[in-house]
Amino acid sequence: MQSKKYDSQFDAFSEKEEPKITDGNRLCEKIFQKRAIVNNEGKLPDKFWNLPKYKGQYTGQIVAANKLLQKYSMLAISKAIDSKDAKYILSFRNKKLVPIIEKYQKEIDNTIIEKSDESVRTTRKPLGKKNLFSELD
User: Fold this and answer.
1) What is the pLDDT of residues 76-119, one digit of tens each?
2) How far is CA 32 from CA 49, 110, 125, in A?
3) What share of the chain is helix, strand, coil (3-state, %, to 5)?
4) Contact 44, 36 (CB under 8 A)
5) On the chain, which terminus has fewer CB atoms closer than 10 Å, C or N?
6) Domain spans of the chain?
């Protein structure tokens, strides 16, 4: 049987586990992947959060990530973690992370999504011969 290749790091979860994954879990996985790169540990093992080495740290980071998610959007936090400004920030409890997140949150809030005219539906005129129903319009 061939092994399945995944496009991103978040596609590796099975369909049963997918509903259990929260935004906090996704952010924590990003932070721990970043820690592994800095510590030159290579790729994190599957279900690393169950290993004794990571278990305590992971639960603490989940709590911190969920506190940040109450104030800021997932996108802003994710962009802040990946930014060059947060290159050496390896924890959600780092005080230097909050101004970076606020910067990205302001960018997200300032982007205006305009409703285009194409999204307004109009009724279509019937093609072909006129009948009794077309006279009612």
Assistant:
1) 999 999 999 988 899 999 999 999 999 999 998 888 665 555 66
2) 10, 30, 58
3) 55, 0, 45
4) yes
5) N
6) 18-109
